[in-house]
Amino acid sequence: xxxxxxxxxxxxxxxxxxxxxxxxxxxxxxxxxxxxxxxxxxxxxxxxxxxxxxxxxxxxxxxxxxxxxxxxxxxxxxxxxxxxxxxxxxxxxxxxxxxxxxxxxxxxxxxxxxxxxxxxxxxxxxxxxxxxxxxxxxxxxxxxxxxxxxxxxxxxxxxxxxxxxxxxxxxxxxxxxxxxxxxxxxxxxxxxxxxxxxxxxxxxxxxxxxxxxxxxxxxxxxxxxxxxxxxxxxxxxxxxxxxxxxxxxxxxxxxxxxxxxxxxxxxxxxxxxxxxxxxxxxxxxxxxxxxxxxxxxxxxxxxxxxxxxxxxxxxxxxxxxxxxxxxxxxxxxxxxxxxxxxxxxxxxxxxxxxxxxxxxxxxxxxxxxxxxxxxxxxxxxxxxxxxxxxxxxxxxxxxxxxxxxxxxxxxxxxxxxxxxxxxx
Length: 424
Prior knowledge:
Blueprint: H1 2-11, E1 21-31, E2 36-46, E3 49-54, E4 64-75, E5 77-82, H2 89-92, H3 103-109, H4 111-119, E6 122-127, H5 135-144, E7 152-155, E8 159-160, H6 190-202, E9 208-211, H7 230-242, E10 247-251, H8 254-263, E11 267-270, H9 276-285, E12 288-290, H10 295-301, H11 307-313, H12 316-330, E13 334-335, H13 351-357, H14 362-368, H15 371-377, E14 394-397, E15 411-416, E16 419-422
Parallel strand pairs: 1-4, 5-6, 6-7, 8-9, 9-10, 10-11, 11-12, 12-13
Antiparallel strand pairs: 1-2, 2-3, 4-14, 14-15, 15-16
């Protein structure tokens, strides 16, 4: 019986548990903090964290050795704008699809999103809201408990939005009564905003997502509009701070962007129509711009994209890319975010080439998804680079991403906290 149980336990895990000591031999190691590529480095890992990095390190006799001497090794990538808990990619094209399935269906259909995201090299994500409130909390917790495979998730729980706003469920008859989890985040006025944030904090979220302008992918919305007043946005940032939570704001319109920056949010999501004044304000306040400049291709190409969404999106893609270039040249703080779900899950790395096309160096693009993203999350002591004391989150690619950043679209090796999830 004991032998049977041992076999059963051994077969119940799809990934190997980390050895106490692991030595990774890296042919080239990208150090985003120094902005350099280091040669012939050895990385020693103990109990899921980096213990030492350097040339000619002594490898303990009992260490498990992983030979990546012909590969380029990087820190695990971080995507600061995902929606992993919103079911499959086809459903994401139109929020009306949310009403066709139960919350349980959406949660279970989100499991592959987490797995493919991790295997594509993104070991951490900041998930910025779901129409079915708290599905992302459940997905995060299932990953943390080892029930399913996925990246480390920092979740928002729900959209904080005005009634009928950019984060509301829309497109249905007004005489329908929605269940609690489809209007959980609606708030009007500073005290309602505070109440919603108190609920979210109680329910275990990691950060707050508020929407200060209209949206492209919402029926009856206008991306040029301003949503929430400055007073409401300031209340959100203040209330979140009481729980140690940061706030990010969805914002397309110039004034929606500026209001959110003045209110003190940590990042602006999309920042599509940001103007020169908005860029200057972002620099002044140290606000990150998290611009999903690859999405336009997916919105236009998806045969399921509703006509009104295509009309919202008209010309905005190029406007956003031109403003991205301006923000890069101005020296604004930039993080990596793709709005994953708009494009198929697992394709996030395609955005790197667009970031380079529109003004970044390859190293800057990598930094946006490593040290910058870790800083935005408030986790730079644990994430974003391969340094002693940080989580052993490593990926490897066969080509040089500094010469051609599209190399990051083809990841050969993925390790999260010392556990190998993908190996060529």
